[in-house]
Design brief:
The chain is of the alpha+beta class and 65 residues long. It contains three helices and two strands; from the N terminus they run ββααα. It has a two-stranded antiparallel sheet with strand order 1-2.
């Protein structure tokens, strides 16, 4: 997984490769359409077990501004 975060903390790009990648992409796409900051996905509670669970750890690594 990779994410590109804009100056306004919104996700402006996202890539995910592997089994069930479409599931994670759908979650991020919804957040992007809604204009949510990446922190919304970082703090979200994602149903278990799914590939989208990994979004929390991805967005935890974004440095604070």
């Amino acid at each position: 997984m990779k994410a590109l975060i804009g100056e306004d903390d919104r996700t402006v790009g996202f890539a995910m490769v592997g089994p069930e990648a479409g599931e994670g992409m759908a979650v991020v796409q919804t957040a992007m359409i809604a204009g949510l900051p990446h922190m919304a996905l970082r703090e979200a509670i994602i149903a278990h077990p799914t590939m989208a669970e990994g979004l929390g750890s991805l967005f935890t690594r974004v440095p604070a501004r």
